[in-house]
Amino acid sequence: MAAGPFAVPSMRLLTGGELTVNREVCALVPSETAGPFPLDLTDTMFYFRQDIREDRTGIPLRQKIRVVGLENCEPMANVRVNIWHCDAEGNYSGYGSEVGTTYLRGYQMTDANGECEFITVFPGWYPGRTTHVHFQVHVSSSYSAVSQWTWLAADAQAPTLAHPALYPEGPDPLPPTSDGVFADGFDLQTADLLWDEAAQEYVSNYEVTVQGSGLSGIGHLERMASAVIEVEQNAPNPFRDRTVIGFVLHEPASVRWSLWSVSGQCVFQSELGSLTFGKHSIDVNLGRLGLRSSSYVYQLDATTVKGTFTAVKRMTQSAL
After folding, report:
1. Contact by Cβ (8 Å): 59, 159
2. What is the CB neighbour count within 10 angstroms for residue 205?
3. Domain-ending residue, one of 186, 210, 234
């Protein structure tokens, strides 16, 4: 099995639970402390997953996130979003009595619309803090935005009041206005929360603006990789069942490519062998690969005498 994929606003208008973007105005999300509970979601492929619940109980929550670049208020594709939060009893995995556990942590990569989503449970709370979720938007190895989002007090209390057996601590008594972390305001850090009766789950939308315009702020690791291999966005994108991945080798290399589901499984892998420098392409026909039509993350690994260099992007399934 290959290593897991790892990609090195005031305009939050909500209509029927969907995010609508005002392209004329966007504001940078405030930075917040990561808190004492981030662990390391960077080097462990285990955390590349959509469903982060593991054995945690709580009312189901489908959390949707859209990332927008400050420079042009456009969606940022192919950036990594890490999230982590406490369980219904206010505990974080990996600390104190929870050492060795990994629940309610994970990362996803944004699609062509700058969006990704997680399947989790609505978080509980603990003394001194209002209900919240920690997140990191990892644009590249040279820049990431670390912050938190919350919900309006009434929204945060709704799941716990409706399901008291799942939330033994009861409704959150501390509104965001009394939380010191959000003392400077939380307009840019507020998600919506809607109940989906058909799915029997809450759906939350959060849009965040970070520095950049598209994939920017390239760091040392990305520069090293791009000196050997440059991977293009697949075209067409979004796509139906077929698409093409183009890439350029700046020196001869042995190349391997793989497809990963957004839930974190490697579903296809192939060795392309030793290739000469220059432009190459991979025709992707999901039917021939025995894969269902869906969004995937693709990874290319180029190995030379200097080492192995990796590039990752996400391909987006067409809604049509």
Report:
1. yes
2. 20
3. 210
What's the mean pLDDT in 68-95? Answer: 93
| Location of structure tokens 């200097």 | 306
Looking at 175, 210, 245, the residue that finishes a domain is 210
Q: What's CA 66's distance to the chain center, in Å?
A: 9
| CA–CA distances in Å: residue 8 to residues 13, 143, 156, 305, 308 | 31, 10, 34, 21, 14
> For 255-272, what is each residue's pLDDT tens digit?
999 999 998 999 999 999
224 and 181 in a common domain? no
- Provide the number of structural domains found in the chain: 2
Q: Is residue 5 part of a domain?
A: no
- For the CA atoms of 169, 170, 173, 179, what is the dihedral angle to 10 degrees? 50
88/100 Cα distance (integer angstroms): 18
Give pTM, 2 decimals: 0.82
- The boundaries of the domain holding residue 289 are 220-315
In tens, the pLDDT along 54-77 reads: 999 999 999 999 999 998 888 999
Euclidean distance between CA atoms 190 and 148, whole angstroms: 9
CA dist., res. 206 & res. 137, Å (int): 13
- Say whether both 229 and 145 belong to one domain: no
Asked whether residue 270 is domain-assigned, the answer is yes
